[in-house]
Every structure is written in structure tokens, then in C-alpha cells.
Design a protein that fits this description.
heterodimer, A: alpha/beta, Rossmann fold, Ubiquitin-like (UB roll), de novo design (two linked rop proteins), 3 domains, five-stranded mixed β-sheet, four-stranded parallel β-sheet, 17 helices, B: alpha/beta
């Protein structure tokens, strides 16, 4: 517990509306440092830090940065701030309490990759984050952090905000592009990947809010510092959204790889409700359940992947023994049936059938073979869906049955 | 070619083209990967997930959709692996989980991709237990197409077709997840002219033909290869019949002509075939009334009637009018009969000698698809030839071909970037002169004196430069500029521009009638012999005389309007086949009434037929064999698909009977007893057709070569066009043209389509406001000749000062208005 927060250091300290306050607390120093380093060496820092994407997929950020850096312009930087995974609220707090950090990070990414334009796609249900960002963008234009010749670098960069309209699918990066382009948010086929053909068909760097904000200390303190935190293969500080039956729910910044037990007990003040831990849903609705036997699992990408789970966005929802898990599963199944976009068959029908079957089970009309049916649907969705939505729509439910939580 | 690479599927090495999709490569090797959303004519989507295969990747085997995966050398796939099979089976099972089991009454039953794939790849048994979801089962998308949302498997083919080919994204996916449905956008219509192609594309029975549904089981249908005769494109059709009656038309692929598409007129407008108004037996005027008679009697009367006139007035008193809608065989025999047996050159068709146009049509339809620049002059492909319009739209969108439009209306193609001019009738030559001058200047060539005064605007310069610099331009002009008063001047003026731009040999004409090229090929013209040989060409004449066994008169005959006008004079007998001059202009009636003898051969008792002495019931082209030559000179066979109505007979057979009776001593030259045999004779009369036969036309047809007819085009001055005077009260310039949804005989007979016709005269909003007229008001359009009353349509697609009256409006033929300035006259417009 002697970890000193970095990503959330300014939260509750600075006035989120005040650019000067941000500057007084280390703001725009990372950008200044990047301009000193030049684009190529800035990208090299991100590569060396081995930063894995914080949105959920854990893709190495450096690969994306390098690819877009090497691509011919025009190109774009997009911050994925459509934080829609149930149980996840880390990006919202970053944007509401420290909006300039995200803006600085996007400008820095634009400078490093040579993109002339950036977008922040903010979840529609985050009006306050949007307001704060909007005001901050305006201030940055006034102060010369946006526009022509940023910090004397000669680089021109413009930033626009876009608001989502409440669709979970629009957090999927290609659906998000479609949405920015003014079309209905359906996922695109990959390849081509965004770094080749992303927004408006141009090379695009798209990163989650936390990933972008993590780049600021990487540039300031160096990749070695970043690598000194957490496990070697998924290093760095991590934001965990802790909710559910804990005494002190909230945003937790900890070194990557904190154990579930430490998170609940040291940060969350222990299990509330019955006081007895039943399970935790890690990674949101698209994540997996961990049971009492898995409390000592380090919550980092690789440790969880090894056991067939995923850290995802870092959401941890805790359930005590008084919770009827079937109802939780019903809620999760209904969520996916509602949010499936309908583009591909396995997902649109699989999520519907999954919901119907679980509803039937909740109503006491389960049939022999239901579990196998759910597994088959899950496999079809995982193997055959276009995008992450369908591919993960069964993982939480199947893991709950696996742990015999019901 | 180095483009061939090797990939491995299930351990077997196969050759593939670099970059082609795995589905295509596999199909060539005999592995037919199942698909629903994928279609060779549409961009890959990857939505249905039916085509999953395993691919060897850097991080092990992964499932990929074969329909979206381009292949590269050395790639390794597993189609038959357990994981791939499971994934496909799982996908099919979820698709089937909600698909209704109404196959027994589904129009698609028996030709349904879902049925076939359930058979081949399905799990055999579903383990779903929940009830199927319910949606709209009878949801009309338009007057022509109905959607069954339960059957729909959301493959997006319909959405993509309308977007990618028609550039009219009129359908979309609505709602989310399993509630997703195909629908129109609120407040809009599905009215794309080729919308019916989505029925052919639909892999299941979700989209069905409202005119044909529930009338047959697909497996009982007989299929006959045919072509469409609604326009000059010659789209390939498959006509499906049962009990010798036409049940539906579907598109037949011919990459050189229509790809795999037909327009909605070609698909749906076949009601005329079984209209109750079809003529079923010969009629003759007895005691002043048309009364049924037998065929022998009818033929006897025709022979006697014509002979009587020839004996009394000489052969020059007889004339024959054919039709650009009828087959080569029909038109050829009419010409042969008139020339060889009657002994007159009075033969023509409506768009025949009057048309000041390129007889060769367009360079090729493929050129339209490959174009890097599109030039459209006085034609509206969207209305006259919708499938061609789709090719042009695609060239504009996908090849970034600029579109230069010169047309009195803002036609649909003006929505594409390029340069668009809308000269008023009479102002066209000045525009073309300016373009000619700018083209010459752009190419550094001398400008002749007679062009010195032409004013070159920036837009003119831009258009001229585009054409001069184009490598592969597709250049066409149309009937609007080539027919009627002043057309000779306009055509020379536009020819000058194209010649001056260095593309003289690419100038093509868009023939809007099915067999306009063919009718001229077979010589149904007063001054031309078959094969575009001049009547004055003695050698050509002698060859034909040998073939026909008779002398051919050397004096050029009268043309279409000349024959009708002379009905009050030296013409005493007319044989009119498939034409209806009175329907086009009622004042022709009094002229035709003055004839001693009138024969009309048609499908219907037209206004002209009502005046006839003998009416001969013709079989439609679907009920007989015949060949048609489209606007790219492609001779195509349309085989008989249905039984003739009543006692009607094919045109060629009627003419054959008449000829044998007319000149028994010549019977040796009139022995052919089938349409293919008549075609064989045509190939001997028309040099361009040499070597062709009914069999060799096959499924794709055979074009005659662009350079098989020498045409010289030169930059030349021309007679100044004196436009019709604008003088009170005739203060509007009339413009006319074809709209796809017309109200002509062959179209109006399809009841379901009756609502589609748009009977109106069009005015610009400024003019309507000036006259205090509102949409739908009844207005009078009056020329020096006649007046028409029509509802008003207000549209900014036409220019101020013009009034647009389309051809073929029911009870309001625009031809009534034509005076000495023909279709380019001036008219008065006022509230009726």
C-alpha cells in the first residue's frame, strides 16, 4: 500500500475547469517533453513501456503508435471514451476530474503519430465529462495547445468531440468510426485494421482514455519507470473500477497485478451485505466470474488469460453470498440481447436465445440439456461473431456455470 | 500469369489468383463454401458467418470468413476441420432457429439457398426449444415487392444492391439485435428502377414478386432464355412459364450486356402478354364494322386489297410501316415483301429515316463500365435504360469518371461531379460550337472562321478539356437531339465537338427501342438496303435480287411521316405492323381514313387498327422465336416461351403466308418455315450478320463489329437552326422525352403498375408561381396545332421557360402538339 498514484494524482486536487491549475500540477509537461524528443523517439517510449491497451483487449499500444506513425497522412487520433462496459467508470472519473490530461494525451499522440486531427468519442450518458472536455478544448485552443504550431513544434492539430447515443456497440472501435462518420454504428470487418484504414478510411490511432493518459507519465518518467511497476509482461499502473457488495466501492489505482483479495479488502474495505464473498465479475458483462478459490489471482492481463479469464476494462463487481446469481445472469443475458447490434447472425440470434433460455431457467422451467445448449450457443457466438460483443457475450454466463455459482 | 499463386485447403494445394476471395478460389477447386450474405456482384460484408473456415495464422489457427478473405501465396486453410464445421453448423442452426417453416407456401421453395444449405450443412436436428420470434409476414415495400420479415436472414444483399449498383440506398437495417428488420427509411419509397433485382438476390423467400407470388412452385416452371424488348439495351431474361403461360421474368446473366440485372419494367411489365385486350383472331371491315374472319379469308383480303391498289395506282401507292420493337425477322420480311413482291421502297419505321443518328448504336456496353469520362447528350439513361444508367453511376462512383451532361432537364446523372449544361431547345448548337472551339484550342488546332464567334465560358472550357484529356470516354447522344425538327443541325454540331476533341470514333447513339439497330440492319428504310447498303448501290442491289428472285425498285421511297402525309395523295394502301400513328397523333386518323386499303398487324386493337380494313392478330415476341439487335449491335435470340394467344400468329409467319398467296410464282423464295430459317436468310442479306446462325447466337448473342460499318465524321459547318418563334401566347419551349413509367400499351396493361405512371406536364417552380399554379392543377398546353390538358407537376429539374410533356401519356400523346417544329415547338400554358 505504499504505491503512490500517478494516473489519478490530480483527481480531487486540481480544479477540472482550470487550465492554469492543470499546468501548475505538471500539466502539458509530457507534451513539452515529447516535442523535445521528437515524434519518433516519443513513439519509441510507448513501445519500450510495453503498454497494453486498457480498454479491454490488451493490445500493445506501441504497435499501433508505430504503425500510424509510419503511415502516410492524412491520419487521425481517436480517444475511445465510449466507456460502456457495465461496472466500468474509470474513464468517466478521469474525464470529469482531470479533463486536460486526456486532451494533452491526445495532442501528444497526434504529435507523435503525425495526425493532424483528433476526436474524443464520449459516451452519451456522460454529460458532465462532455461539458468538462468541451470547455477544456476551448481553453486549449485559446492557450495555443490546439491549433497551429503547438509548443513551437510546427505541428498543427485540431480536436473535436463526438457524443455517443447510448449504444454499447459504439465502444467497438470500428463501430465507433462509423458513428463518427455519421452512420449507424455497425462493426466493420477487420482486417483492414484501424492503423491501415480507420476513420474515414484513413490510418487511425485509436486508444482507450486510460491508455492515452498512461502515456503522459511514460513520456515524463520514462519506460523504465513504467516497467518497474507490476508484472514484467503487463506492466504499469492500472485503474480498477470496484463496485458491488464492497464497503468502499470506487475507483482504485494500483500496480497492475494487485490480487482480487487485496483489492476487495485493502481498497474496498471488505465484502458488504452478508460479509461473505460469493464471486466477482471481472471485466464487466463481457468478463468472467472469479470464485472464492480465485481470490488470490493477480488481476493482470496475463495471469487472468492463463486461467481463461480476462481483465478487460478492469471492472470488478463483487457479489456476496446473499445475491441470487441466476438473476445476475439474467440481467447480463438481457443486456447483450438488448445491445447486440444485429449485423451478424451468431450474435443477434445467440444473445436472444441465451436470454430466452436463462429467463426460462429463472422461471423454474429449466430443461435437461440447457447448460449444453448455452455452451453451444456460446461457442457459436465466440467463434463466429464479427466483433468482441458477440465473441464475449457468453463468457460471464458460462464462467458462472463453470464455477457452479447457480 | 504471375498472378497465379498456391494455397492449401484441407491439405490439398490449389491454384488461385492473388487477391481473389477464398470463396472464389475454393469454388474453382470444386469446394463450394456455403454463403448467404456474400454475392459475387456485391462487396464483401461478412455478416452471416456461414462461410467460416480455419486459417493458419501467426498465432495458430483462427476462424475467418472465407467471403472476406483475399488469398495470398502459401496461405493454409481448413474447410473441413471439426472446428470450422462446428462453427458453420452452429451458425446455420441459429439462422434456422427463427426461420419460419412455411416452405410449403414460400415462393422460394425449391430454389432457396437456406433450404439447400440446411440440407448440406445443417445439424439435421435443432436443439432449440424456444418459440420462433414473430415479425411482419406481409410487409409491402412497394407496389412490386413484398417483404416477409420472418423469413429474412438479414444478409444485407438488398441493402447493398441498392447502394452499390443503383446508388439509391433506399433500404436499411432497423432496430437492434434479434429485433433487426429490413425496412425503408421513414417517409421514403422504394422506387429505384431496378429494385426488382433484390428479389433475385434474396437468398431466401423474404423478398418476393408481388405480381407473381403464390402462383407457382418454382420446380414446376419451364425456363426459356429470352431477352427484354422494352428498350434498346437488350437485357437477357429468363422467362419462366407454366402451362405455356408466362409466370415471371428473372434476370439472366450476360456480362457483355446486362451483367445480372434487369430493370423493373423488364421484370414486371409483362401484363400485356395476357391482357384481355389482346387480339385473338383476324378482323375485317364488313358492312363498316370490324368483324371476325378466318385466317385464309383475312389473307385473301389482304392480298386482294394490296393487289387492287397496285393494279390501279401502281406499286408506288403502297407502303409498309414496321416497328423498332419487332424482330429482325418481322421487319426483314416486311421490307422484302414490299420491295420484291409489291415493288416499292415505301418502307420505314417511326425512328427510321427520321432519326438523324448513328446507325451503329454505342461503341459497346462494356465501354460504359470502363469509362474514365461519361458524356451524355440529349439522352436520359436513368429513364430510358436503367441498367445502363447503373453502369454509368458505378463508373462515376468507383472509377471517379466525371459526367458531362448536356440535356434540357437536370437528369439523375447530374448528381455526379462533372460539368452539366441545360441549354434550352434551340440553344444547343451554340453550346456545341463553343465546346468545339474550346476543344480545338485545347488541342492547339486552328479554329475555323465559322466558329470564331463562339463564346467559350469557363464551364465550356472545363468540359472541353475533360474530354480532350480523357483516355477512354463513353460518349452518347440520344433521341432528344436526333429526332425531329432541327436534329440534323444539332447532331452535326455535337459531332463537331466530339471530332474536335479527338474522339470522333467513340461517338455512339443510344437507341431506346429494342430493335432500332436491327430494323435498320435488315433494311427497313426507304433509301437503304439490308446491311446499310445504299439503294443506289447497284452491286448490292443485284446480290439481293438474286437472293429474293425479283427486281428491286431503284426509286427511293417515302418515309414514315411521308407515307402518312401522302395518304391524302399518292399513297392508297398501307401495311402497318406494330405501329400506332393515330395513337401518337389523332389527326393522322383523317389521313389514314382516306386510304383505299389499310392493314394493321398488332397485339391490340390500337387507334390505328380501329381504322383498318383488315386487322391481323400478331403473337408477341414471347410467343414466337425471333432475333433482336440491341444498341451495341448485339444480335440476340429470344426463343418462344409461351403459347400464342388465341389464333394470333408470329409476324414473320403472317408475312410469309401473305407473300406466298400474293405471288405464287415466287413461292420458291418464300419457303422458310421457321424464324431461325428466316434469320438464316437475313445473314445472307446483311453482310454484317454473315456467319451468324440462330444456334451460334447462343445464350450471349453476337455483336457485329463497330467498324463493320464505315462512318465518316468530319468537322463541318451546318445549316443554322431556326428555333420555333417565342411569341404570345406561345411563350414556353416544349421539351419531351421518355420516362420509364410511361402509359403506353405494353406498360399500362400491367395492372399492378398502373399507379407508377406519372401523368403530368412539368413546369419550373418560378413559372408555376408566375402563373399562380399549384402542384396537381389541371393545365392546358397548347401549340399552334392542338391542345392537351394535363395535371401539373412542379419540378426544378427543368429549366424556367420550358414545359416538359413526356411521351406515351394515356389519352394525352404529346405528338398532338407537334407542328412544323415537331417536338421542338413553342406552346402556351395556362390554367385549364
Amino acid at each position: 500500500m505504499n504505491y503512490e498514484p500517478v494516473l489519478t494524482a490530480r483527481i480531487g486536487v486540481v480544479d477540472p475547469a482550470c487550465l492554469h491549475d492543470y499546468e501548475a500540477h505538471g500539466g502539458f509537461q509530457a507534451l513539452a517533453r515529447a516535442v523535445e524528443l521528437g515524434p519518433d523517439r516519443t513513439v519509441a517510449q510507448v513501445e519500450a513501456a510495453k503498454l497494453l491497451g486498457r480498454g479491454g483487449a490488451a493490445f500493445p499500444a506501441g504497435i499501433k503508435w508505430r504503425a500510424v506513425h509510419n503511415a502516410e497522412g492524412p491520419k487521425f487520433v481517436v480517444a475511445n471514451a465510449d466507456e460502456s462496459e457495465p461496472g466500468t467508470f474509470k474513464d468517466r472519473i478521469l474525464m470529469e476530474k482531470d479533463p486536460y490530461a486526456l486532451i494533452e494525451a491526445v495532442i501528444l499522440a497526434g504529435y507523435a503519430t503525425g495526425a493532424g486531427k483528433g476526436f474524443i468519442y464520449v459516451r452519451g450518458e456522460y454529460p458532465r465529462a462532455y461539458q468538462r472536455l468541451r470547455q477544456a478544448v476551448a481553453r486549449c485552443y485559446e492557450a495555443g495547445y490546439l491549433g497551429k504550431d503547438i509548443l513551437g513544434s510546427g505541428h498543427e492539430f485540431h480536436l473535436e468531440l463526438r457524443r455517443g447515443a447510448g449504444a454499447y456497440i459504439c465502444g467497438e472501435e470500428t463501430a465507433l468510426f462509423e458513428s463518427i462518420e455519421g452512420k449507424r454504428g455497425y462493426p466493420r470487418l477487420k482486417p483492414p485494421f484501424p492503423t491501415e484504414a480507420g476513420l474515414f478510411g484513413r490510418p487511425t490511432l485509436i486508444n482507450n482514455v486510460e491508455s492515452l493518459v498512461s502515456v503522459l507519465p511514460i513520456v515524463l518518467r520514462g519506460p523504465d519507470w513504467f516497467n518497474s511497476i507490476g508484472p514484467a509482461n503487463s506492466p504499469g499502473p492500472k485503474l480498477y473500477s470496484l463496485s458491488g457488495r464492497v464497503r468502499k466501492p470506487g475507483l482504485v489505482e494500483a500496480p497492475m497485478g494487485v490480487t482480487l483479495r487485496e483489492l476487495i479488502e485493502a481498497h474496498g474495505g471488505g465484502v458488504s451485505g452478508s460479509g461473505e464473498f460469493q464471486a466477482a465479475l471481472v471485466g464487466g458483462a463481457a468478463g468472467t466470474f472469479l470464485g472464492p478459490d480465485q481470490l488470490d489471482t493477480p488481476l493482470d492481463f496475463h495471469s487472468l488469460a492463463k486461467m481463461g479469464a480476462a481483465l478487460g476494462s478492469g471492472a470488478v463487481i463483487v457479489f456476496d453470498t446473499s445475491v441470487d446469481m441466476m438473476q445476475v445472469l439474467e440481467r447480463i443475458a438481457a443486456f447483450f440481447a438488448h445491445e447486440s447490434c444485429g449485423k451478424c447472425y451468431p450474435c443477434q440470434l445467440g444473445t436472444m436465445r441465451q436470454r430466452d433460455i436463462i429467463q426460462r431457467m429463472v422461471a423454474g422451467q429449466g430443461r435437461p440439456g440447457d447448460l449444453q445448449l448455452l455452451r453451444d450457443i456460446g461457442q457459436t457466438m465466440r467463434d463466429a461473431s464479427i466483433c468482441g460483443l458477440g465473441q464475449t457475450a457468453s463468457s460471464a454466463i458460462l464462467s458462472a456455470f463453470e464455477l457452479q455459482l447457480t | 500469369m504471375s498472378d497465379w499463386i498456391t494455397i492449401t485447403i484441407d491439405g490439398k494445394e490449389i491454384q488461385a489468383r492473388r487477391g481473389e476471395l477464398l470463396t472464389e478460389a475454393a469454388a474453382r477447386a470444386g469446394i463450394h463454401i456455403p454463403v448467404f450474405c456474400s454475392h459475387p456482384k456485391l462487396d464483401p460484408l461478412g455478416a452471416c458467418r456461414m462461410c467460416l473456415v480455419e486459417m493458419e495464422g501467426r498465432r495458430g489457427k483462427m476462424l475467418v470468413t472465407a467471403c472476406t478473405t483475399p488469398v495470398n501465396d502459401g496461405m493454409v486453410f481448413y474447410y473441413n476441420s471439426e472446428r470450422a464445421r462446428d462453427a458453420r453448423q452452429g451458425t446455420l442452426e441459429v439462422i434456422l432457429a427463427n426461420h419460419p417453416l412455411d416452405c410449403p407456401i414460400c415462393d422460394k421453395g425449391g430454389e432457396c439457398d437456406l433450404q439447400d444449405q440446411a440440407m448440406e450443412h445443417g445439424p439435421g436436428k435443432s436443439h432449440y426449444w424456444e418459440p420462433k420470434r414473430h415479425k411482419e409476414k406481409n410487409y409491402p415495400l412497394s407496389d412490386l415487392i413484398v417483404l416477409d420479415q420472418e423469413r429474412c436472414i438479414l444478409c444485407w444483399r438488398c441493402i447493398r444492391y441498392l447502394d452499390e449498383w443503383e446508388d439509391k440506398p433506399q433500404l436499411g437495417l432497423f432496430h437492434r439485435g434479434s429485433d433487426s428488420v429490413i425496412d425503408k427509411f421513414p417517409g421514403t419509397e422504394l422506387d429505384a428502377y431496378t429494385s426488382g433485382n433484390i428479389i433475385d438476390l434474396c437468398p431466401v423467400g423474404a423478398l418476393t414478386n408481388r405480381l407473381a407470388r403464390f402462383q407457382f412452385r418454382p420446380w414446376v416452371l419451364e425456363h426459356t432464355n429470352s431477352i427484354c424488348t422494352h428498350c434498346g439495351m437488350g437485357c437477357n431474361l429468363r422467362i419462366d412459364t407454366r402451362d405455356f403461360r408466362v409466370r415471371r421474368n428473372v434476370a439472366r446473366e450476360n456480362m457483355a450486356v446486362n451483367d445480372a440485372w434487369i430493370c423493373d419494367k423488364g421484370r414486371f411489365a409483362n401484363g400485356f402478354l395476357f391482357s384481355e385486350k389482346r387480339l385473338t383472331q383476324p378482323l375485317a371491315r364488313i358492312d363498316g364494322e370490324l368483324q371476325p374472319i378466318s385466317w385464309p379469308e383475312a389473307i385473301q383480303r389482304v392480298v386482294e386489297g394490296l393487289k387492287g391498289v397496285v393494279e390501279k395506282e401502281g406499286p408506288g401507292a403502297v407502303g409498309g410501316i414496321g416497328s423498332a420493337k419487332l424482330s429482325n425477322e418481322a421487319n426483314y420480311l416486311l421490307g422484302k415483301f414490299m420491295r420484291a413482291l409489291v415493288g416499292t421502297n415505301n418502307i420505314d419505321f417511326r425512328e427510321g429515316s427520321a432519326l438523324k443518328a448513328e446507325r451503329r448504336g454505342v461503341t459497346s456496353l462494356q465501354d460504359a463500365r470502363d469509362a474514365d469520362l461519361i458524356v451524355i447528350m440529349g439522352a436520359d439513361p436513368s429513364e430510358e435504360m436503367p441498367v445502363l444508367a447503373n453502369f454509368l453511376k458505378r463508373a462515376a462512383r468507383r472509377r471517379n469518371a466525371p459526367v458531362i451532361v448536356i440535356h434540357p432537364r437536370r437528369i439523375e446523372l447530374t448528381k455526379y461531379p462533372g460539368v452539366h449544361f441545360h441549354p434550352l431547345p434551340g440553344d444547343e448548337p451554340a453550346l456545341f460550337d463553343a465546346l468545339t472551339k474550346a476543344a480545338l484550342q485545347a488541342r492547339g488546332q486552328a479554329v475555323p472562321n465559322w466558329l470564331a464567334d463562339a463564346e467559350v465560358s469557363d464551364e465550356v472550357k472545363e468540359a472541353a478539356t475533360l474530354l480532350v484529356n480523357a483516355q477512354n470516354p463513353f460518349i452518347i447522344y440520344g433521341t432528344d437531339y436526333a429526332w425531329g425538327y432541327g436534329s440534323a443541325s444539332i447532331v452535326q454540331a455535337l459531332t463537331n465537338w466530339i471530332v474536335a476533341s479527338g474522339h470522333g470514333d467513340r461517338l455512339g447513339f443510344l437507341h431506346s427501342q429494342a430493335n432500332a439497330v436491327g430494323a435498320a440492319d435488315v433494311g427497313l428504310l426507304p433509301d437503304m438496303l439490308p446491311g446499310h447498303q445504299r439503294l443506289a448501290d447497284e452491286l448490292a442491289r443485284m446480290e439481293l435480287e438474286k437472293l429474293w428472285g425479283s427486281k428491286i425498285p431503284t426509286q427511293p421511297g417515302l418515309g414514315y411521316s411521308g407515307m402518312i402525309a401522302s395518304a391524302l395523295g399518292r399513297i392508297k394502301a398501307l401495311y402497318i405492323m406494330g405501329a400506332d400513328p393515330v395513337g401518337e397523333k389523332s389527326s393522322y386518323a383523317e389521313k389514314l381514313e382516306a386510304l383505299d386499303f389499310l392493314v394493321v398487324q398488332d397485339l391490340f386493337l390500337t387507334e390505328t387498327a380501329k381504322l383498318a380494313d383488315v386487322v391481323l392478330p400478331a403473337a408477341s415476341y414471347v410467343e414466337s422465336n425471333g432475333t433482336f439487335t440491341n444498341t451495341e449491335r448485339r444480335v440476340q435470340a429470344a426463343a418462344q416461351a409461351a403459347r400464342a394467344v388465341g389464333d394470333s400468329l408470329p409476324d414473320w409467319a403472317i408475312l410469309m403466308h401473305i407473300a406466298r398467296r400474293y405471288a405464287p410464282d415466287q413461292a420458291d423464295f418464300w419457303r422458310t418455315s421457321s424464324a431461325p430459317a428466316v434469320f438464316a436468310e437475313i445473314t445472307r442479306a446483311v453482310p454484317q450478320y454473315a456467319g451468324m446462325s440462330w444456334e451460334s447466337l447462343g445464350e450471349r448473342g453476337q455483336p457485329w463489329a463497330w467498324d463493320a460499318l464505315e462512318v465518316t465524321r468530319e468537322l463541318a459547318p451546318y445549316a443554322k437552326l431556326e428555333p420555333a418563334p417565342l411569341e404570345k401566347p406561345f411563350t414556353f419551349r416544349l421539351i419531351t422525352g421518355n420516362l420509364l413509367w410511361d402509359e403506353g400499351n405494353t406498360f399500362a396493361a400491367t395492372e399492378r403498375m398502373a399507379n407508377l405512371g406519372h401523368k403530368a406536364a412539368w413546369l419550373h417552380p418560378d413559372d408555376a408561381a408566375g402563373l399562380d399554379l399549384r402542384e396537381g392543377d389541371l393545365i392546358a398546353v397548347r401549340s399552334r396545332e392542338a391542345s392537351l390538358e394535363l395535371p401539373l407537376h412542379i419540378s426544378s429539374r427543368i429549366q424556367p421557360g420550358t414545359v416538359f410533356v413526356p411521351f406515351s401519356l394515356k389519352d394525352a400523346p404529346v405528338g398532338e402538339l407537334f407542328d412544323e417544329f415537331g417536338p421542338r415547338t413553342t406552346v402556351a400554358v395556362y390554367r385549364a
